[in-house]
Amino acid sequence: MSDDPHHDDLEDLRRALGRPAAPAPDPEARARAVALALENFDRFQGRAAGLRQGKDRPRGAGFRNGVRRMSSSLFSRPLLAASGSLAALGLVLVVVMPTARLGQLPSPAPESLTGEFKAAPGAAPEAADQAAPRTLATEGATPILRRMAEAPAVPPVRGDSEAFSNAPDNPLQVTAEAPVSTFSIDVDTASYAIIRSSLRAGRLPPHEAVRIEEMINYFPYDYPAPESGAAPFRPTLAVTPTPWNPDTRLVHVALQGRMPAIADRPPLNLVFLIDTSGSMQDPAKLPLLKQSFGLMLGRLRPEDQVAIITYAGSAGEVLAPTAANERTNILSALDRLDSGGSTAGEEGLRLAYRTAAGMAEAGEVTRVVLATDGDFNLGISDPDELARLVAQERASGVYLSVLGFGRGNLDDATMQALAQNGNGQAAYIDSLNEAQKVLVDQLSGALFPIAEDVKVQVEWNPARVAEYRLIGYETRALRHEDFANDRVDAGEIGAGHSVTAIYEITPVGSPAQLTEPLRYGETPAAGTHGDELGFLRLRYKAPGESASALIETPIPDALTEANDDVRFSTAIAGFGELLRGSDKLGSWGWDEAIALAEGARGTDAFGYRVEVVQLMRLAQSLSR
Can you give the pTM of this predicted structure? Predict the structure, then answer.
């Protein structure tokens, strides 16, 4: 070897082996190569779209920028010369991929890793490259990279893999054909918080993320509470003109749950089931989760118990059942949590339920609180199968609530399926303020049920109502016969909860009627109930009971005064219709919705109504 610092030892070795000299570096060629590498990376991501999007696979801008930096380094002058020399010596270049990605690839490698890719300009194919596709393990990197460069262009993968639980808008119903409407109540609030998260990020939410009933029920209302000794909740009815259609009316069905004396509440057993998989490392996920649960501890009592179960590649107990006043031990266990691995959600659920069963005593409330971004990719991952698992455990009396964290791979569909079948509530936590609302301010309603399997049924009077539609509750619809069937699961009302449902009805003879009268149909007679628009029936079970109780009340055919709560809930319904791109609002738009909400803010102790007015203004700007 020469002592000359500028001497190229690799060039001597190449000449000794009879190999041609490496070409002189070309800055323009380097620039083309870098651009091509990034282009082919995007194609590679698109070709892999057929694979399940694992939570722990790097993707998005961060990973792409990393590839850009790696490409820049690989195409620097020293490494170009070295890689050319290694190729001349016939050495194999090992391509290192993230272990989470390699660990999830099937064998043999899928076509997306072995097909033809676009070649660099001027590249000459070798005879060996004409053979059948080979995998990374059976051939050198240079032929593979060439075939990667020859792949046809495909659309890029979406920047996220979110899944939402929703259904098409409820259709308009002709009263003479289908006079009965039946649904389960819903006190979830996840949709509103997801919408807020999207708008604050500068984009309109996906239509499928908008569940209007969850937007309406996000806000507290001052409905009349039930009297002492009466049913656990009280219905209130209101009939008002429709702001977007003067020829129809809105019928508000509101339920207000009682607030038992806090001092009398039973002991609470909580199992925190925490997703610690790799994707939870985002600041809006596991770090926010730890802070959120820390806030909640201040509202617990010494007789309450807390246990912590985590799951990633497998599930395990981090904190055995511990008295809630041992805050130092509980906070220390939370602080030690770290993220990494896959998402064995099924195993975590089973362990959490076993832990909860061991904590439960007669007369106590026991609940599993699942905190996750929702993507289960080990064990059972199908929402329907997970729902069946939770439904089986429901019979033990252990409730399941679900808290969603973070965006990008939020699996709202799975979280909704779990909460609805686990006799619990689904909420989305996007900030400490939301954690304060859900886990502190509304702790009693979120954790202490006062009525289970609450069902609503309205029978409309065809002599007074020609058509009707239920606004929202698309995922909560029940069959007519499900109403009296006590084996059919429905929603729960917690202490102090309020629930609102809104129907838009078309009176008989109104010019707003959209359907033609039947040729052979008869005009319904008013009969003995001519002063009623319809009849409201409610069924519910006391916690732990198997037989339901019935509440009935007529809906008078008379307009009522629209107070602030009625007008504000109407504005939120209109907000949801606008976000979903509804065709039922006519010329009524953002300005009218904002003015209605602004004028109905009323008492707004926590500023929730002020916040939504600002969100509506933001949505209006984004929609333009």
Answer: 0.73
